[in-house]
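Recap quiz, item 2
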Amino acid sequence: MLNSESKQALSKSALRRKREREQRYQTILNAAEPLFARKGYHQTSIESIADTAEVSVGMVYFYFKNKEDLLIHLLDEIGFRLRSLLGAEFEKAGASLKGFELAGKAFFEKFCVPYPDKAVILYRESVGQSDLVETHRKLIFDKLKEDVIGALFRMKENMGFRFQSEVSADVIVISILGIYERIAYQYIIWQERSIDLKKIGQDAVAFLVGGINSLCIMENG
Amino acid sequence: MLNSESKQALSKSALRRKREREQRYQTILNAAEPLFARKGYHQTSIESIADTAEVSVGMVYFYFKNKEDLLIHLLDEIGFRLRSLLGAEFEKAGASLKGFELAGKAFFEKFCVPYPDKAVILYRESVGQSDLVETHRKLIFDKLKEDVIGALFRMKENMGFRFQSEVSADVIVISILGIYERIAYQYIIWQERSIDLKKIGQDAVAFLVGGINSLCIMENG
Amino acid sequence: MLNSESKQALSKSALRRKREREQRYQTILNAAEPLFARKGYHQTSIESIADTAEVSVGMVYFYFKNKEDLLIHLLDEIGFRLRSLLGAEFEKAGASLKGFELAGKAFFEKFCVPYPDKAVILYRESVGQSDLVETHRKLIFDKLKEDVIGALFRMKENMGFRFQSEVSADVIVISILGIYERIAYQYIIWQERSIDLKKIGQDAVAFLVGGINSLCIMENG
Amino acid sequence: MLNSESKQALSKSALRRKREREQRYQTILNAAEPLFARKGYHQTSIESIADTAEVSVGMVYFYFKNKEDLLIHLLDEIGFRLRSLLGAEFEKAGASLKGFELAGKAFFEKFCVPYPDKAVILYRESVGQSDLVETHRKLIFDKLKEDVIGALFRMKENMGFRFQSEVSADVIVISILGIYERIAYQYIIWQERSIDLKKIGQDAVAFLVGGINSLCIMENG
DNA sequence: TATGAATGAGAGTTCATTCAT
DNA sequence: CATGAATGAACTCTCATTCAT
């Protein structure tokens, strides 16, 4: 009884500890995000992150191996969020072109605009910082590519077309990612005038649909 | 006679000086390029640049205000080279879709492949280093946009179409730049397998031609 | 009990920390003093200060913003010590000429002679180093002026005299400070032969008493 | 004849050269003075001096051994000028107290006020720069002391008094120099409010006359 | 767990001085 | 005489990381 009680107590406290740990972890990540995004990765010191998160410097190093590791976790989290977001949109639309439209819309309206700091970290602050960070960036882009390629292939099955060449699918996907990245960089990160993002998004979708059509050949009359 | 001779001598030596100065300037820039591209901007010390260029540290500071200034000059030079290159291709093709094809081809074959270091600096090492560098990056992209938009509008005049919306031209141009940037990053900078760049390029051209067609509406039947 | 004990322990360790911090701070200041005084402010490197204090370079920057800040703190400390010293002497003497004599004696015997490094820093090494240092120097001199003027005015009340003009009090005080500064510079800093400072001091007091008498007119016959 | 002609020509050109050299020398000194005085000795680069003087850096090193040497020559020149100035005033007054009054007046009106840069260099910028500079400063002060002591002794002969002690003469002279230095620093260099220097000067003279009287005992009843 | 003082390598930058031309 | 590009030692300062408490 006593044993079980103490066990339970332990497990309760262990749970609380775990929760606290995860909270703390997130607090640090949340503190780092705006600092990295606004002052820049190199211009942000561990101390300022610790201060913002209201923890000690030592704690940052308890939760993250080093500064690079912190950036990588932040980056991974951002990548995961973006994938989930886009995945859900493709899901909604079934295997149709509609998915590309919804995903594009969501990219701006549910990612770039509400979380510009995340976009900045993904597209600017994590660029060229180190081999390891670059590896993670590549992984994120690869996963995104996979997701979009998956949607593309499901659409292919569904609609019955074939690709112009064996690289067409890759080219389509990379092009789509490139288009959105550049638009985000230009209009969100560089904040070039307060443009009508909705219109931009619509035309971008039209553009990429045109592009897709060019590389996907309907199988028969 | 003697006077004129000495004058000439003077002008000769002055000329030589100027030439030497420009040479030295280029030597430093040439030394910095591969270092920035391969070890990264932050991981490259002024000393290592000076050593590579076989000049003293002081000389680097004689020709460039500081490290950032060195990067900016390098970046500007790269931007200028790229613009010249693409400009020449558009020129060749006259006001036709052909220009976009040639420019795309040239981007890979005359820029990314022969000068991967330059591509790395333009697309990776100059990203998010400082406000000033970012300003220069933006300027370069703006100029490129202008160039491509110019070609687009000349084509518009020539072929007699209109844009789907008032942002269509911008979207087309940004999309094109985004597509090429992402392909370059994926296949040149990340060196994802030694893919058949020629095929990639062809499909990319097909994709963007499809995109352009989607946003450019022929004026009459 | 245990709780209270651990609390006490905490407070003890916190106290010890504080003490250690202040000790370290003083250690650095104490290391800098002779270096600045003997090799000169500019000829003294932060590294040499750190070495002498047996701390790392980083620690110097932990306790002081920069080299200038270190000098300023040293200077302020010296200024404070000198004021306290002179203030005590004036206190001892009540509102009489005796105070000027005691203060003068103390200036040499309790400041310049036992702490020549401090005199050197106050009168030589802190001169013309930067606007900020100069501001602090001025503040120290202003405070000293205030102190001496206070003593002068108390004496005035006591003895019933008036000043020859509205600037007389200022002139008296500045003259006294100037006389002592120059004597200190000549005989302590420049170490012009090992003169009989006692005699010098006596004559200086006689000189300045004569000066004071010239500018303070007894109110009635 | 020919010989003499060429000799003459040579001597003419040699003269012109000498004149030019001296001019150039002065030009550099004149350029350095305001720079040292306003930006500070250490904050003034040789290049900026050369630029201001409109000569090359090499020329500065042709006329002066190094930066320190330049400061020393400037300092010596300033010292010489001050001595001449004060000497002339003592001369005017003959062997009387009047001389101290005239010299004091001249110190402000003919030195500090019209040439504040010179005062700044003498009393601030040359302080504690190096052993050699300090030696020259000491030499200047020693010469000034000698001059004033000379005047004092002539007055002694004339008026028939004796000094209270064997250090009295030194104390008087050092006190006078100290008084004027501190007043100059306070009101000219620190520019403490635009005070009535004339009144200050008058009271200072009264003060020091009182001081002198205290240490000079009339020989007979 | 938690702290935050301590470390110290390393970077950028300056500038007095030299010397080939 | 005159130039001014070239040198490179020396300095200040930063900050990611560690570790005794």
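Confidence is low (pLDDT under 50) at residues 1-7 of chain A.
Residues 17, 47, 50, 55-59, 62 of chain A lie near DNA strand E (CB under 10 Å from a C1').
End of item.
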